[in-house]
Amino acid sequence: MGFSDEGLYYVTQHGVRGVTRPGFNTSLLENILVPVPPLAEQREITRRVERLFGLAEQIEDRIHGATVLTERLPHAILARAFRGELVPTEAELAVAEDRDYEPASALLERTTNRANRKSRPSTGQSSGSNQPTRKQSECVIHVFL
Fold first, then answer.
1. What DSSP assignment string belongs to the chain?
2. In a structure prediction context, what are the per-residue pLDDT tens digits for the chain, which is 145 residues long?
3. d(CA 2, CA 126)
4. Do residue 31 and residue 44 come from a single domain?
5. Residue 124, domain member (yes or no)
6. Enclosing domain of residue 46
7. Are 14 and 53 within one domain?
8. Which residues pair with 17 in a beta bridge?
9. Are residues 111 and 137 both part of a single domain?
10. Do residues 62 and 79 both lie within one domain?
C-alpha cells in the first residue's frame, strides 16, 4: 500500500477521476489531509538531508579527482619508465649486492681506448691507406654491437 493512513489511501484510490488517464482534480486534493511531522522533526530531516547532499557532493568530487588521475596514469607510468624510475639501476643493484659496478661511460671509454690501441699502425708499417684493415673493422663493429 505505501500509505499509513487508511483514509488517505481510500481517497487516493476511490476518489480518482477519469478512465483513460486517471488523475486528481484540485477539489479532490484540497480535501486530502496529509500528515506532517512536527516542526522540530522537519528541521532535523532537513538537516540530515542537507548533510547527505554535502556528503554526496564530496563523493562526486573524489570520483572526479580519481577519474582525472586514472586518465593521467598511463602517461605517468611511461614517463617514469623512460626516466628509469620503475626498476633499480645497475648501480643501485651493485651497491645492494656489494659488488663492483662500471658505468656505461667508463665501459665505452675503456673499449674505445682498446680499439684505438689495436687500430694504430706500428712504426714499421707504411701509412699509405687510411682504410682500416679487416681486423680493425671487426674490432670497431664488436665494440658497437
1. ---S-HHHHHHHHHS-B-SSS-B--HHHHHTPPPP---HHHHHHHHHHHHHHHHHHHHHHHHHHHHHHHHHHHHHHHHHHHHTT-SS--HHHHHHHTT-----HHHHHHHHHHHHHHHHSPPTTS-----SPPHHHHHHHHHHH-
2. 344 567 666 666 666 665 555 666 777 777 777 889 999 999 999 999 999 999 999 999 999 999 999 999 999 899 988 888 888 888 888 888 988 888 888 888 888 988 888 877 655 555 555 555 555 545 444 444 4
3. 110
4. no
5. no
6. 38-87
7. no
8. 23
9. yes
10. yes
Kindly state the cell numbers that stand for 143.
Answer: 665494440
Same domain, 72 and 45: yes
Count of alpha carbons within 13 Å of 88, Cβ hemisphere only? 8
Residue 92 lies in a domain: no
- 115 by Cβ neighbours in 10 Å (0-12 / 13-18 / 19+) ranks as middle
